Amino acid sequence: MSESDTAVGSVTEKDEPYRATFREYVEAIYELQEEGIEPIQARIGDWLGVSRPSVSEMVHRMETEGLVAVDRAITLTAEGRHLAEVVVRRHRLAERFLAEILGLPWVKVHHEAETWEHMISADVEEAMWRVLGDPKTCPHGNPIPGAGYKPPRMKPISAMEVDEVGRLERISEELELEDETMDFLDRAGLRPGAIVHMSGRSPHGAFTVQVLGGEAVGVGDFVAHRVFIAVV
Asked: Where in the chain is CATH 2.30.30.90?
C-alpha cells in the first residue's frame, strides 16, 4: 500500500524546514476538498489556525515547488495530491494503531497522530497495515487513501426524520479538530458503528439523538451536519 514520499518538488537541503509545513498544507487542502469545502486561503488558514499572510507565503512557495495550482481556489497538482495521500494515509493508520493496538482513548488519537504521521516510514507503514489487518477507515470513519474503501450512501444526522434510526458511519475530519466536541461525541457513544435514533428536532437547528442503549443528548446544528449515518 505504501508509496514513496521523498520527492517534494525541487526541495533542496536549505528548504528542509519547509518539508513538514508542505505536508501540513497539502493535508489541509486534501481534507478541505474531502469535506466539500473550497480550499481558498482563508479556509486553509482557519483549518490550520494560522494567519492569512502565512498562508499566502506558503502557498506561493508550494506553487513554485509544483505542489499546488492557484486560481480562485487552490488545487493540488498530481505531485501535491500524491504527497497529501501519503500524509493522510499515515495519519489515519496511526489513529487506528494508537486506538486499537496501544489503547489510547479515542478522543486523543487525532492529535497524537499529527506527530506520528511525519515519522512513519514506508517500511513501518507496511508493518502497520499487516498488524491492523488491512483497515479501510480511521477510527472516526474517514477513508484511508489507498485502502480501497467503498463508502455506503450517507447523509448527516441533521437530515434524519424524527423516529428514524440509522448506523453512524462517519464523523467529519473537521470535528476532529475540536477536543470538546470529540469528547462529547465519545461520552454520548456517537461513534462509527453506533445505532442512532433521532428522537426530536426543532426548527431552530437543535436535535435530540439517542444511541441504542444510551441516554438522549442534544446536538447542535454544526455537529449534526458533520456526523453521518449510512442510508439503507
From this structure: 154-230
Is the pLDDT at 6 greater than 80, yes or no?
A: no
Overall fold of domain 154-230: SH3 type barrels. (2.30.30)
* Res. 118 pLDDT band, cuts 50 70 90: confident
As annotated, the residues of the chain forming the CATH 1.10.10.10 domain(s) are 1-148
Q: Which pLDDT tens digit goes with each residue over 33-75? A: 999 999 999 999 999 999 999 999 999 999 999 999 998 889 9
| 68 vs 1: which has the higher pLDDT | 68
SS (H, E, C) the chain: CCCCCCCCCCCCHHHCHHHHHHHHHHHHHHHHHHCCCCCCHHHHHHHHCCCHHHHHHHHHHHHHCCCEEECCCEEECHHHHHHHHHHHHHHHHHHHHHHHHCCCCHHHHHHHHHHHCCCCCHHHHHHHHHHHCCCCECCCCCECCCCCCCCCCEEEHHHCCCCCEEEEEEECHHHHCCHHHHHHHHHHCCCCCCEEEEEEECCCCCEEEEECCCCEEEECHHHHCCEEEECC
Confidence of residue 15 (pLDDT cuts 50, 70, 90): very low
Q: Which CATH number does 1-148 carry?
A: 1.10.10.10
